[in-house]
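A.,

Following up on our hallway conversation. Structure tokens first:
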């Protein structure tokens, strides 16, 4: 196991190098440029230097006067030292801005994942045990609806019904107009109230695929020979399903859950943007639109590391939960 982990970590470092190279090259080729915007603004001031002169000065200031490969090597060396510079768009250190926003996204992701697992897995098992019944068809329709609904459409529908028509929630933001006048507990409830609709959107749009995946794996396990043998022995149906079948259904689900762990920190870019929730997804969206290369590079590199770590965790957990799998 130790050799396997070391080998995978070394391979992940190589993958991370080439992934960050691609990300850096794409970021350098973005049509939106923070430096161009600043140079254009400064060149329009009375008595100022020309646009080209400002571009030359600002590119030298931000180390953008190098080519893509030399610039990437310089950035990679700084990254290994833990130096990510200052955000161009937010004018604060990248680490500081990231730390201020990522935990809100983590809370949203953790709560939505809890409800996703609590809803999707039981419903998937229920649909498999009642195959071709009304219950199965109803759950399947709900799952397909969740998979098919676009995020922007469902979020807009939620805001129209619960914010505009019923007035239960605010349309945008994390806090209400009287947030500063509330007690600490009241401020907590105010923020929780503003997170209800975004979390519902995340849960509804994510349970469909997990529900279908659980149902498919459960059906495959229920048709296995050892399940027929357990039933032939006269074991209670509940014990057959939840003790024998369900435990083996969890084996492939561990891979799915392990791979989704990076989502706890990555943020929901579309959902956070639609509801103006200042999480890491909302922050990174505005950084990318503004051409903020330092923050965007850090954010995308962070996601790459989480994805590689999630795949490694999935492989290890798969070997833990399934005795038939051994890492050699």
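Then the amino acids I'd put at each of the 328 positions:
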């Amino acid at each position: 196991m130790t050799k396997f982990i070391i080998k995978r970590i070394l391979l992940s470092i190589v993958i991370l190098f080439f992934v960050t190279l691609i990300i850096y090259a794409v970021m350098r080729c973005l049509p939106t440029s923070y430096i161009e915007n600043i140079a254009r603004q400064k060149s329009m001031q009375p008595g100022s230097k020309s646009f080209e002169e400002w571009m030359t000065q600002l590119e030298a200031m931000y180390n953008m006067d190098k080519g893509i490969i030399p610039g990437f090597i310089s950035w990679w060396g700084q990254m290994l030292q833990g130096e990510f510079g200052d955000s161009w768009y937010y004018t604060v250190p990248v680490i500081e801005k990231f730390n201020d926003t990522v935990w809100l996204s983590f809370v949203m992701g953790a709560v939505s994942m809890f409800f996703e697992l609590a809803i999707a897995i039981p419903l998937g098992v229920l649909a498999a045990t009642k195959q071709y019944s009304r219950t199965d068809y109803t759950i399947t329709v709900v799952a397909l609806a969740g998979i098919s609904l676009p995020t922007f459409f469902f979020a807009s529908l939620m805001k129209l019904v619960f914010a505009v028509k019923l007035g239960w929630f605010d349309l945008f933001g994390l806090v209400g107009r009287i947030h500063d006048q509330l007690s600490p507990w009241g401020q907590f409830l105010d923020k929780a109230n503003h997170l209800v609709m975004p979390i519902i959107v995340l849960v509804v749009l994510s349970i469909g695929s997990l529900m279908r995946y659980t149902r498919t794996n459960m059906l495959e396990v229920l048709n296995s020979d050892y399940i027929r043998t357990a039933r032939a022995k006269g074991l209670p149906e509940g014990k057959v399903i939840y003790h024998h079948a369900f435990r083996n259904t969890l084996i492939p689900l561990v891979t799915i859950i392990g791979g989704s762990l990076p989502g706890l920190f990555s943020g929901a870019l579309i959902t956070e943007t639609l509801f103006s929730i200042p999480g890491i997804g909302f922050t990174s969206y505005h950084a990318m639109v503004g051409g903020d290369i330092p923050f965007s590079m850090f954010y995308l590199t962070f996601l790459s590391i989480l994805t590689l770590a999630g795949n490694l965790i999935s492989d290890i957990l798969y070997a833990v939960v399934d005795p038939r799998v051994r890492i050699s």
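The CA atoms of residues 89 and 292 lie 6 Å apart. Curious whether your intuition agrees with the design.

B.
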